[in-house]
Amino acid sequence: MTRKIKMGMIGGGRGAFIGAVHRMAAGIDGQIEFVAGALDVNPEIAILSGQDLYLSPDRTYGTYQEMIEKESKLPDDERIDFVSIVTPNHVHFEPAKLALEHGFHVVCEKPMTYSYEEALVLEKLVEESGLIFALTHTYTGYPMIKQAREMIQSGVFGKIRKVVVEYPQGWLSTPLETTGQQQASWRTDPKKSGKAGSVGDIGTHAENLAETITGLKIVELCADVTTFVEGRQLDDDANVLIRFDNGAKGVLHVSQVSAGEENPVNIRVYGEKGGIQWHQHDPNTMYVKWLDKPMEVYRTGTGYMGNMAQAHSRTPAGHPEGYLEAFGNIYRNFAKVVQAKLDDSEPAPEYLDFPTVHDGVRGMRFIDAVIESGERNAEWIKL
Amino acid sequence: MTRKIKMGMIGGGRGAFIGAVHRMAAGIDGQIEFVAGALDVNPEIAILSGQDLYLSPDRTYGTYQEMIEKESKLPDDERIDFVSIVTPNHVHFEPAKLALEHGFHVVCEKPMTYSYEEALVLEKLVEESGLIFALTHTYTGYPMIKQAREMIQSGVFGKIRKVVVEYPQGWLSTPLETTGQQQASWRTDPKKSGKAGSVGDIGTHAENLAETITGLKIVELCADVTTFVEGRQLDDDANVLIRFDNGAKGVLHVSQVSAGEENPVNIRVYGEKGGIQWHQHDPNTMYVKWLDKPMEVYRTGTGYMGNMAQAHSRTPAGHPEGYLEAFGNIYRNFAKVVQAKLDDSEPAPEYLDFPTVHDGVRGMRFIDAVIESGERNAEWIKL
Amino acid sequence: MTRKIKMGMIGGGRGAFIGAVHRMAAGIDGQIEFVAGALDVNPEIAILSGQDLYLSPDRTYGTYQEMIEKESKLPDDERIDFVSIVTPNHVHFEPAKLALEHGFHVVCEKPMTYSYEEALVLEKLVEESGLIFALTHTYTGYPMIKQAREMIQSGVFGKIRKVVVEYPQGWLSTPLETTGQQQASWRTDPKKSGKAGSVGDIGTHAENLAETITGLKIVELCADVTTFVEGRQLDDDANVLIRFDNGAKGVLHVSQVSAGEENPVNIRVYGEKGGIQWHQHDPNTMYVKWLDKPMEVYRTGTGYMGNMAQAHSRTPAGHPEGYLEAFGNIYRNFAKVVQAKLDDSEPAPEYLDFPTVHDGVRGMRFIDAVIESGERNAEWIKL
Amino acid sequence: MTRKIKMGMIGGGRGAFIGAVHRMAAGIDGQIEFVAGALDVNPEIAILSGQDLYLSPDRTYGTYQEMIEKESKLPDDERIDFVSIVTPNHVHFEPAKLALEHGFHVVCEKPMTYSYEEALVLEKLVEESGLIFALTHTYTGYPMIKQAREMIQSGVFGKIRKVVVEYPQGWLSTPLETTGQQQASWRTDPKKSGKAGSVGDIGTHAENLAETITGLKIVELCADVTTFVEGRQLDDDANVLIRFDNGAKGVLHVSQVSAGEENPVNIRVYGEKGGIQWHQHDPNTMYVKWLDKPMEVYRTGTGYMGNMAQAHSRTPAGHPEGYLEAFGNIYRNFAKVVQAKLDDSEPAPEYLDFPTVHDGVRGMRFIDAVIESGERNAEWIKL
Q1: Among A369, B227, C131, C357, which residue has the fewest nearby CB atoms (within 10 Å)?
Q2: Closest approach of A299 to chain C, Cα-based (Å)
Q3: What is the pLDDT of residue C2?
Q4: Packing angle between helix B93-101 and helix B116-129, nearest 10 degrees?
Q5: Same-domain check for residues C125 and C94
Q6: Which long-range contacts link A245-248 to residues 24+ away (Cβ below 8 Å)?
Q7: Per DSSP, what are the bridge partners of residue D250?
Q8: CB distance C249–B224 less than 8 Å?
Q9: DSSP 8-state assignment for residue C130
């Protein structure tokens, strides 16, 4: 019989940002109980963090190894069903691997790993184990992205010719990492973030969005990668020309030094007969453009939305849903698929829709290609 | 020691709309456990609804009377701390009264009661009992509304002169109630909704928003109230001239037959030196206008937001929060105040900010005045 | 044979605002020559103004009486065909009357006259003379307004139920008239402006727009009219409930103390099946809303525009046309109709579309009704 | 003494598009008389076109050579002061050269010539003759572009780091040139358009806008140039990475197959402390972004606009000016400078602001570089 599934969180204690987002996203639909955590590398902070969050003291662990170890010995009905990994990039691989090896399903932050090689290892482990693995590429969780994908892939716009995807932020316009700001520090530290800065942190979102929405694959790219802030160790801006497997061309650009920008992820896709435009700052709206008739403004929660979009919104039109709900869609779908596994049933098809370990591998390949192209003065690199 | 507080829900079972919204809003911040329910008047549906929601069968009640009765006999640590009333208007008063009489705190849907007289009874009960009562006027839960209120009431715009508040919807443009649609049916039925249709359902939101944001009181109004859809028993449109206690003038109009409109609650306030404009469809944005300098675009999650707005958003700028988060702010604040009561401590001041029984009384008075003015061909009625 | 027609301007010299607008509007389409003027009451300024504008000295007149007198004695091919009256309100009637009596066609600023009675006199004169009279209600000159009118009156939205028309400005938020500012001074002076301030200056635009676009007539209104700025002699704000001849209801509000507002004339019209929304700040765009399908964004210059809209735009889609072009449409159409008269031919039907003396009479009636209602504490007044 | 200046037009007769735009732009400010024309290569159409436009028959010429020849023999006060060249690209150079050689000032459409070499010849001729030459890069004529330039070059945003400039159109999404459509035909014909399609037609606008607004020079670029429509002879899409002389990076992309797009030229510029965003579809608005305070919305016609912007708008805030007015600014400034030359006086500094022959040379160099990079699979090419 279906029941709520149980989450153990790795990272996300006091001072963290994305951990709280994961807890809210996991909590919103009432399918998941948050029952255990290894919330900080510092055991003292881990314990205080557990208290903040009303965790039972005996399931507030000092390390993720301890949590995985001990939880795996609890009875089926009691132990966690999955771990949620919300640590910096360099602490994704080991806990994910350990969790999978102990039979736990996994939700993991992106970029999936520190290196492409690690990504391949995880992919193999997931495939062999049959465990469920969700990667939190939040933006594809928005209902309007489901609608865009459905329309584009239905062919209503004809063959896709051009894609413009952008992710400009401004918060790293100054050397924020030198002030001790925690989010800036690890993201600009190659030992924690990997070989890429902005390209990994937000570039992978742009890549994932473009490929998900169009169903096309980037086959080649040429990138101008820059570090604008003096002394910074990783890139903070990248302009990339892209080519897709169907002959479409595109532009992908990301930045963390676009001063004054918040988080306006956006994408435009053009086919022979029309196309779409979507902005994350107004996520419930999509502009649908046509060669020879008025632009249409699609809105989530309306009766004309397709099935997939309908299945991923919670309120009627005009009641804005946002980032947390998009994030929640990944958790909700993941939970439904895990529940089906527990019940030995088939999940409804709409629940199968969340980013997986394969998206994670793809993202790591993208990072490698952009960084390589950047190092070679924007030579074309094949993916 | 602070703990999660426990919710028992009245209404909100299968087929309901707003109950699910309340559960998501209550769940998002991890301060509230949903442990009991009297989810439908039909006991069979109530039980199935409880199963859907993973409620324990022994706390899935057939009636709200039973729930209140039985829960009040459970030990302090186990029983519900409050009831959440999410039924149609005519079933607000009795359960609220019963809950208060049994010492339970209350969250209640708006308009607060069926009649103004009932509202006064509840107000008295709340005052006498010292219990916490929250009314879910969602729109004032948005962080940007906190910011607007703070700026307007600080006097930066000088004396307020004009307020324009609108709540146009289109979903009742046709006689939807004749098709059996549940939401339309009770809202257009005077036995369930009260003497007002659109004026009660959404007009009270507009009134509450205008008074909350400006800190002014409507002292007089003149209303043109219309039922456009043939056969409908209650109003579906109202245009109202309003006058405030400081001499400001205003326009308030609401409609459920503005075909093509979703839920664009919006408000503009003008003072001597500038003013603000806010649209619920883009709730994280506020336009701040000035006599002699460029309009500014305020955005939630930014560093320049005031303390109250900061305390009511959960994510950095550019990560849209929406209706559920605004709703969640009411529940979060209510929970914090109840927790403080349990701990015998003082809640932080930002948590004291949610609509109360007094807003409910005010809303019922507004309904009476608009309907009376409408019946007298738009005579001025004093509030 | 068709030729350019010749304009003599009354008012609009140095220091004036709207005269220059008229000259640009008249010049844009190459149908009108500006050949004579009585540009200021002060003959010295009139002469300097004529020099500024490359007018021939012998056709730069000291008074409008002199211009009308002398021009009427010039040969047909040489003399002016029409006068353009761009003076303050109290100097509309006399020159218009004199021009008509001398056989000149007239373009006149709005509101048409100082009083309703004068308006009726002009109407009679125009009817009896068969001369062409255009009133510069600019906003109905926009191509998108033609489109709105065509769609609404075609019935695609069903019966019209609600109209919201707004004209908020902020430029008179302070007692600007006390600083000697010329535009503010006459507009707030009852001896020059008439009995109304904002209601005449911009309220008539709102009224004209609402009636033109819907084809409905306002039959009754109730108005809350206010002077917010201390010491001001005329109204600077008005909120009006309106009722139309088909049973539609509406709200019309205008203000010159909405601090921070520029000139955002806007209108929303709702019918049974959908409706439109238009904002003058973005005049080439119209939002077309539907009960059950996505909102459409109509844009001028596109292939799907109707004939009337097509006939009133000059450039392809995406080349913004603005206020001067809308103004120019009135002059262009007026010129084409005068040319047809000179040729004794029939003008193409699209050229017959400009505001006339009847719009002027209607506007003066509207002013009277609003001011009367305001004086009677918002009693309903029939038009 | 200052007088209107006299224009002779080359091209722009019946069936043409841009000629009418030039005439409206030249007519709007009352500084220019249109007195002569060689309006079509077909003399019969040229004559009919002259009649349409009320040209005197004796100054309606069959060829531009004839016009230049005959006009140059007329008395100073009678003959044209300048020619306006509004023909397809391959007929810019010869008439411009001939006009300059006969002492006429020139207004010329862009791209300036058919080839870079021709551009250099014209540049030399202009420099040697001291004649005035204006190139109609319309978009830099907008008042808000003046404001953007002033702010950026004042340094308020710090050092510029990133520029994103876009010019997507959709009108060539189908093989329109095969239908005989005149505008499509010559633009896709290498014999008339030159070596570039979209890159010349609209890419040069983007390049000119980016360099004008920032005061920076593109020093290097790498371009992915595509022809999407089968059978088309020239490019219809280009994605370009750009590098500026101060180290700034950028993206420039243009397209005529972005189905559903009208003419949304737009630019974003980011400096260390903030930046700007401007969209041609809403040309009177500019978004000014800051690292640490609310975005500001600048609007033309307001008191806070800088001197240059003020000098290039004609109406108060909220009266939209558009494409024709921007175009008019080029003609007005050109006229003022020619008038000053006739008067042997110094033009006011604001009139010196229009694109010149040097912008034309720069544009031709840009075309060459983009096309070369495209042919070499997006190698970096230095300008």
Answers
A1: B227
A2: 7
A3: 86
A4: 20
A5: yes
A6: A245/A216, A245/A217, A245/A218, A245/A219, A246/A159, A246/A160, A246/A216, A247/A161, A248/A159, A248/A160, A248/A161, A248/A162, A248/A163, A248/A214, A248/A216
A7: D163, D242
A8: yes
A9: T
- Average pLDDT per 10 consecutive residues for chain D, totaling 383 residues: 93 92 96 97 93 96 97 96 97 98 98 97 98 98 98 98 98 97 94 97 98 98 98 98 98 98 98 98 98 97 97 97 98 98 96 98 98 96 96
Average pLDDT over chain B, rounded to an integer: 97
Residues D237 and D118 in one domain: no
Strands (E), D160-284: 160-168, 218-226, 237-244, 249-255, 266-271, 274-279
Which of C87, C104, C131 is where one domain is finished? C131
> Quick check: C24 and D29 CB within 8 A?
yes
Compare CB distances from D226 to A226, A249, A258 and report the shortest one's residue: A249
ipTM score of complex: 0.96
CB atoms closer than 10 angstroms to residue A295: 21
Closest chain D C-alpha to A101 CA, distance in angstroms: 45
Tokens matching residue A353? 């829709």
Report how many Cβ contacts below 8 Å link chain A to chain B: 110
Which positions ≥6 away from B164 have C-beta within 8 Å?
B250, B251, B252, B267, B268, C166, C253
Does B377 sit within 8 Å of C272, measured CB to CB?
Answer: no
- Interface size C-D, in CB pairs within 8 Å, comes to 110
For chain C, the residues whose C-beta falls within 8 A of a C-beta of chain D are 3-4, 17, 20-21, 23-24, 27-30, 34, 53-54, 169, 171, 261-264, 280-284, 299, 301-302, 314-325
- Whole-number Å distance between alpha carbons of A309 and A276: 15
**Where is B19: in which H helix or E strand?**
helix B18-27
Residues of B with CB under 8 A from a CB of A: 3-4, 17, 20-21, 23-24, 27-30, 34, 53-54, 169, 171, 261-264, 280-284, 299, 301-302, 314-325
Chains with 3 or more CB pairs under 8 A to chain D: A, B, C
Which residues in chain C are contacts of D322 at CB distance < 8 A? 319-322, 325
pTM: 0.97
Q: Is residue D171 part of a domain?
A: yes
Give the domain CATH number at B229. Answer: 3.30.360.10
Q: Provide, as residue numbers in chain B, all residues whose Cβ is less than 8 Å from the Cβ of D292.
A: 303-304
* pLDDT of the residue at C363: 98
Residues of A in contact with B187 (CB under 8 A): none
With an 8 Å Cβ cutoff, are B262 and A321 in contact? no
Residues C269, C152 contacting (CB under 8 angstroms)? yes
Residues of chain B with pLDDT under 70: 1
- Considering only alpha carbons, which residue of chain D is nearest residue C168? D318
**Residues A120, D6: Cα–Cα separation, whole Å:** 74
Q: Tell me whether residue C60 is in a domain.
A: yes
Pick the closest to residue C281 from C300, C295, C264 (CA basis): C264
The chains found to touch C (3+ Cβ pairs under 8 angstroms) are A, B, D
CA A93 to chain CA centroid, Å, is 15
Of A287, A297, A303, the CB nearest to C292: A303
Question: Among the three residues A131, A154, A186, which one is the final residue of a domain in this structure?
Answer: A131
Q: Is residue C68 part of a domain?
A: yes
**Tokens representing residue C281 in the block:** 């700040």
Q: What is the pLDDT of residues B46-77, one digit of tens each?
A: 999 999 999 999 999 999 999 999 999 999 99
Tokens 């037959």 locate to: B257
Say how many domains are in chain D.
2
